[in-house]
């Protein structure tokens, strides 16, 4: 998971199962994944999802439908009971090899309270024994990208909740991931801060050429950010419906205030109501 990122092989027009719709190469292929916990909770049942290069996919669903479980399985933090999670042309085990770097942004910032921001953000590179002379320019670059360029010497307690979340995104950025997994990163923030961070994430997604899998409870957030939304249902956890959000990027306030956005939100709410009832 922590190996140096290098350039991925050139995209090809063929997926293992045939031609790639739209020419986009699959990054992760989740196939017939079940997860049954030790207490016999069936958290996931026959989940199929193909994540393609450049996708911004939201996993949207009520509490307990298995969103975090699925994300943790993709990250290799938990094992599927059965089924497969494959990377393009290779098994999951190759994560951490060149071109297969991923990052995970958790629900809370999980910063080390005793360390200044630069040290917090440098942590993944320190763990890889990257020399300080090499890591510090990357740390400064990442902090600047999330708008915290002037705060590298600050302690987490000196920052607002939104700034702490930005710092945790900077810590993910320094690893130069190609796939970014985000588990409800903005759920605890007020609406204005969440909107601002949504815009930041879309900018980084575009600039960095990321593929993102994003967990959220919020219909509004899912529609604003995503090109695809997988609506998940509980008991057992499964993907009940997939919505495509055709609105072009970049998206901003114009999109947020548009009839098109309202219509997509209505559709996503309706899908969510169906699985929650
Ligand atoms: N370690 C575990 N052991 C037993 N059951 C678990 C474990 N982790 C999760 N579960 C159960 O699996 C189901 C799916 O949980 P999960 O956290 O993946 O859902 P979620 O959709 O992410 O929920 P939330 O939106 O509340 O975070 C739930 O019923 C949960 O109680």
From TrEMBL:
<dbReference type="InterPro" id="IPR003439">
    <property type="entry name" value="ABC_transporter-like_ATP-bd"/>
</dbReference>
<dbReference type="GO" id="GO:0005524">
    <property type="term" value="F:ATP binding"/>
</dbReference>
<dbReference type="Pfam" id="PF00005">
    <property type="entry name" value="ABC_tran"/>
</dbReference>
<keyword id="KW-0547">Nucleotide-binding</keyword>
<feature type="region of interest" description="Disordered">
    <location>
        <begin position="1"/>
        <end position="26"/>
    </location>
</feature>
<keyword id="KW-0067">ATP-binding</keyword>
<comment type="similarity">
    <text>Belongs to the ABC transporter superfamily.</text>
</comment>
<dbReference type="InterPro" id="IPR003593">
    <property type="entry name" value="AAA+_ATPase"/>
</dbReference>
<feature type="compositionally biased region" description="Polar residues">
    <location>
        <begin position="1"/>
        <end position="11"/>
    </location>
</feature>
<feature type="domain" description="ABC transporter">
    <location>
        <begin position="28"/>
        <end position="261"/>
    </location>
</feature>
<dbReference type="InterPro" id="IPR027417">
    <property type="entry name" value="P-loop_NTPase"/>
</dbReference>
<dbReference type="InterPro" id="IPR050166">
    <property type="entry name" value="ABC_transporter_ATP-bind"/>
</dbReference>
<dbReference type="GO" id="GO:0016887">
    <property type="term" value="F:ATP hydrolysis activity"/>
</dbReference>
<protein>
    <submittedName>
        <fullName>ABC transporter ATP-binding protein</fullName>
    </submittedName>
</protein>
<keyword id="KW-0813">Transport</keyword>
<dbReference type="InterPro" id="IPR017871">
    <property type="entry name" value="ABC_transporter-like_CS"/>
</dbReference>
